[in-house]
């Protein structure tokens, strides 16, 4: 009993809590943390690309700051090592879902070329310092293999920045500086190999006053390389084979550099023009059209001023075309964040469903009116409503001068004309003249767009009609008798429609019965025809009767008996 008790106690005791080891989180390659880490890796990569070559070609720079270089070298190596650790914890997308399994991330990363380049860039080539000494920075040239991280950081920044064209120009200038920097370092190294001051092409003898300083050596080499790569000229002619080869290589590099610069600048200019054309309408075609059609100067001036206003004040009139490539849901969210506050100010749209407002936001059309331009006139058919986003509009008399009221930002008009409210005394006609005082920005919502949206929200349509009816009552423009008559007429029409539907159902039932009877009759007729064919199939032909007369009575009797039996058997019934 004691042993059983011990066993049960041991089995029922809870397991000892295991120690959970904290691990690094998995980074999203499109997230902020990964983006800022890429920007951090720009510094060690740029350090190796710029300083390492300079130290290898300018011995005074290497000897004068050895301790600082060693500290910076191994700091960059530490960042390289941390970058590999970050790669081990950076997820990837599979079927559109971020994979966070570190085992799969590791197996995927080690099978890529990036892993081999990262390992090669961290090979401990510095151990050769023990034999050659610490003044041979060329042993660290394998650190250049980590340069793809620099290009990845530039691509991410270009995608995220608000000024991509300016960033492309800055990146191009950086590449030009790096190329000239490398070329100047190679020029100084070649001059040292050939001998300083041996001819006019190489770097002057450092024994001359002023040419022994490190800063002067670098600036002279950089200036000389700039003259060669820009093909400006004014450089001493080469005198030896090595100098000729260096000049030929630089000229070829300059040709390729010019082609790259021209292509990049053309791309930047084209992108800027394309962006302007996407945001603002092309006024060149309109100007040419007005010139060909001989439009009067005053109207042409108004059109040009309208286009100029859009350009100067960054007014956008084709938002739908700009956002057309976004997914529908994302496009709706962008439009909601920009315009929902304006739409929610309209009284008839208040307390409506959020999904309804999101649908309506996508239907808003921005419009800009010039000073003195009429938005609508009294008696016009109302096909849209307007929401004032910016500017001022005046409700004027028929003379266009007398002002009754001024509409400012956040106000709206024309909402009643786009809703079919029974008993509306004004119908769908405009009841006032609305004229823009200055430049006014409005949102336009057409009657067709509203009807299309409300067809999916019948409850919201009822609510909006009730609010519109309340507004008309306050304005004394709702005819209750006409409303009651329209309601009675609508009910009578619906009753007649229900009666027609019932009659149509009865006719369909009768037609179905007649069709069934017709099919049954056709089947019976077909069976009778088949039976007659079977009965007449064994009848003797005239030739057979003549032969039977020649042969005599026995044959005739036999054939009659067979015919009788065949007739009695009859054809097989229908399957």
UniProtKB/TrEMBL annotation:
| Main localization, broad class | membrane
GO BP annotation list: sensory perception of smell
Q: Which InterPro entries does the UniProt entry name for this protein?
A: CLZ_dom, CNG_cation_channel, cNMP-bd_CS, cNMP-bd_dom, cNMP-bd_dom_sf, Ion_trans_dom, K_chnl_volt-dep_EAG/ELK/ERG, RmlC-like_jellyroll
- Subcellular location(s) of the protein: Cell projection, Cilium membrane
Q: Which residues cross the membrane?
A: 34-54, 172-194, 214-232, 244-265
Q: Where is the Cyclic nucleotide-binding domain?
A: 348-454
What is the recorded membrane topology of this protein?
Answer: Multi-pass membrane protein
CC terms in the record's Gene Ontology section: intracellular cyclic nucleotide activated cation channel complex; non-motile cilium membrane
Which Gene3D superfamilies does the annotation name? 1.10.287.70, 1.20.5.170, Helix hairpin bin, Jelly Rolls
Region Disordered, residue ranges: 1-23, 538-575
SUPFAM superfamilies, per the entry: cAMP-binding domain-like, Voltage-gated potassium channels
For whether the record's keyword set contains Coiled coil, the answer is yes
Q: Which residues form a coiled coil?
A: 475-524
Kindly name one Pfam family recorded for this protein.
cNMP_binding
MF (Gene Ontology): cAMP binding; cGMP binding; intracellularly cAMP-activated cation channel activity; intracellularly cGMP-activated cation channel activity; protein-containing complex binding; voltage-gated potassium channel activity
Q: Fetch the PROSITE patterns from UniProt.
A: CNMP_BINDING_1, CNMP_BINDING_2, CNMP_BINDING_3
> Catalysed reaction(s)?
Li(+)(in) = Li(+)(out); Na(+)(in) = Na(+)(out); K(+)(in) = K(+)(out); Cs(+)(in) = Cs(+)(out)
Q: Does the keyword Transcription apply?
A: no
Spell out the Acidic residues composition-biased ranges.
544-554
Q: What UniProt keywords apply to this chain's record, in alphabetical order?
A: cAMP, cAMP-binding, Cell membrane, Cell projection, cGMP, cGMP-binding, Coiled coil, Ion channel, Ion transport, Ligand-gated ion channel, Membrane, Nucleotide-binding, Olfaction, Sensory transduction, Transmembrane, Transmembrane helix, Transport
What highest taxon heads this organism's lineage?
Answer: Eukaryota
| Annotated family | Belongs to the cyclic nucleotide-gated cation channel (TC 1.A.1.5) family. CNGA4 subfamily.
User: By what name is this protein known?
Assistant: Cyclic nucleotide-gated channel alpha-4
From what organism does this protein derive? Piliocolobus tephrosceles
């Amino acid at each position: 009993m004691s042993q059983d008790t011990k066993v049960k106690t041991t089995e029922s005791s809870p397991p000892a809590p295991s120690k959970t080891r904290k691990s690094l989180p998995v980074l999203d390659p499109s997230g902020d943390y990964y983006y800022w880490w890429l920007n951090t890796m720009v510094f060690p990569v740029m350090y190796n690309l710029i300083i390492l070559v300079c130290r290898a070609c300018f011995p005074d720079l290497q000897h004068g700051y050895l301790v600082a270089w060693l500290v910076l070298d191994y700091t960059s190596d530490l960042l390289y090592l941390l970058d590999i650790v970050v790669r081990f914890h950076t997820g990837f997308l599979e079927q559109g879902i971020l994979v966070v399994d570190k085992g799969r991330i590791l197996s995927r990363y080690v099978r890529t070329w990036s892993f081999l380049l990262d390992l090669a860039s961290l090979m401990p080539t510095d151990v050769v310092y023990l034999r050659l000494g610490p003044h041979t920075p060329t042993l660290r040239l394998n650190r250049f293999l980590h340069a793809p991280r620099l290009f990845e950081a530039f691509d991410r920044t270009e995608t995220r920045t608000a000024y991509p064209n300016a960033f492309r120009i800055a990146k191009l200038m950086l590449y030009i500086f790096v190329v000239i920097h490398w070329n100047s370092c190679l020029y100084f190294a070649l001059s040292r190999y050939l001998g300083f001051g041996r001819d006019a092409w190489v770097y002057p003898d450092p024994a001359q006053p002023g040419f022994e300083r490190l800063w002067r050596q670098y600036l002279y080499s950089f200036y000389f390389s700039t003259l060669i790569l820009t093909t400006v000229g004014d450089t001493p002619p080469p005198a030896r084979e090595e100098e000729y080869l260096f000049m030929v290589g630089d000229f070829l590099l300059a040709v390729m550099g010019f082609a790259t610069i021209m292509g990049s600048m053309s791309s930047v200019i084209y992108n800027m023009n394309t962006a302007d054309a996407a945001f603002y309408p092309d006024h060149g075609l309109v100007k040419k059209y007005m010139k060909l059609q001989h439009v009067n100067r005053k109207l042409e001036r108004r059109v040009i001023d309208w286009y100029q206003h859009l350009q100067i004040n960054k007014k956008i009139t084709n938002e739908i075309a700009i956002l057309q490539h976004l997914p529908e849901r994302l496009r709706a969210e962008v439009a909601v964040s920009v315009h929902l506050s304006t739409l929610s100010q309209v009284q008839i749209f208040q307390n409506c469903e959020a999904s309804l407002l999101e649908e309506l936001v996508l239907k808003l059309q921005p419009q800009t009116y010039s000073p003195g331009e009429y938005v609508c006139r009294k008696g016009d058919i109302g096909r849209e409503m307007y929401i004032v986003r910016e500017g001022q509009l005046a409700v004027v008399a028929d003379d266009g001068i007398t002002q009754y009221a001024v509409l400012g930002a956040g106000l709206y008009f024309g909402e009643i004309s786009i809703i079919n409210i029974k008993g509306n005394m004004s119908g769908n006609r405009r009841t006032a003249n609305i004229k823009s005082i200055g430049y006014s920005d409005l949102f336009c919502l057409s009657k067709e767009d509203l009807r299309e949206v409300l067809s999916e929200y019948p409850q919201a349509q009822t609510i909006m009609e009730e609010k519109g009816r309340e507004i008309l009552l306050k304005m004394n423009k709702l005819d209750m008798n006409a409303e009651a008559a329209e309601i009675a007429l609508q009910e009578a029409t619906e009753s007649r429609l229900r009666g027609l539907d019932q009659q149509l159902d009865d006719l369909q039932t009768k037609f179905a019965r007649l069709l069934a009877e017709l099919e049954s009759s056709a089947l019976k007729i077909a069976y009778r025809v088949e039976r007659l064919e079977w009965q007449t199939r064994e009848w003797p032909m005239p030739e057979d009767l003549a032969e039977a007369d020649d042969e005599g009575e026995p044959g005739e009797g036999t054939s009659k008996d067979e015919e009788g039996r065949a007739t009695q058997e009859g054809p097989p019934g229908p399957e």
